[in-house]
Amino acid sequence: MHEKERHRIILSAVQEKPVVTVPELVDLTDSSEATIRRDIAALHVQKKLRRVRGGAEALHPPQFVGLAGRPFTVNETLNTRQKQAIAKEAVGLCEDGDPIIINGGTTTFQMVHFLTNRRMQVFTNSFNIAEHLLKHSKNTIMLSGGTIYREQNIVLSPFDNDVTRNFYARRMFMGAQGLGPLGLMEADPLLIQAEQKLIDQADELIVLVDSTKFKKRSSLILCGLKRIATVITDSGIEDRDAAMLEEAGVNLIVANVQTDAKTQNAPSSA
């Protein structure tokens, strides 16, 4: 990752929470601790943040604490071909008229390009997904209420009496911070709380993750493998991870990234 991009991520992170640790920034940027410490030192000298023991803090700490994790604009540039191929397979599971939930994320966002000519009832917590489908499709769109988290481009509510409880979905499509033997993992407690409500409204949970997510871990578990009906990933998945899913009774779909990268059939909606 280029230095300017790392600096942008670091500055964004310190604006989202009071103090960000070096290990957290290592995870966000996929860089070494030495690189992050140099970046923090440079930004401290430039008076763009304040270096503290073990991490960094904003010069003017935020009053509103955001979500943990990389910004949407950074994640959407990672493993793009894999995400497109995975999204195409996901939409292939849908039929016109289906009520579905699409959780906000960069992999699930890629579904919008393949939903252009479909007619479904779509509930989402993502402004990006809702806006694109409203402009470029005839799908019926419902958007959840709550607080807007700009960096992740999603809307989350901690309250039980929001509109989520009034929507039934045949399937819910979502990504994750990581996927392992204990199940789906996320980076923030509020994400866990909001996404668990969405999962409760769907018959089937379909997880869209590129193969790198099987190596990612978090301290927060969203749900166990038994709750997942299907995992869609790319051919980079290792045999041990495929065996883990099979043992848990999870259906596995492996997207053909090379074929999709050469001949993407997504309708143009730009």
Automatic annotation (TrEMBL):
Keywords of this entry: DNA-binding, Transcription, Transcription regulation
Lipid metabolism is among the record's keywords: no
Domain HTH deoR-type: 3-58
InterPro entries: Carb_Metab_HTH_regulators, DeoR-like_C, DeoR_HTH, NagB/RpiA_transferase-like, Tscrpt_reg_HTH_DeoR_CS, WH-like_DNA-bd_sf, WH_DNA-bd_sf
GO MF annotation, one: DNA binding
Name recorded for this polypeptide: DeoR/GlpR family DNA-binding transcription regulator
PROSITE patterns (alphabetical): HTH_DEOR_1, HTH_DEOR_2
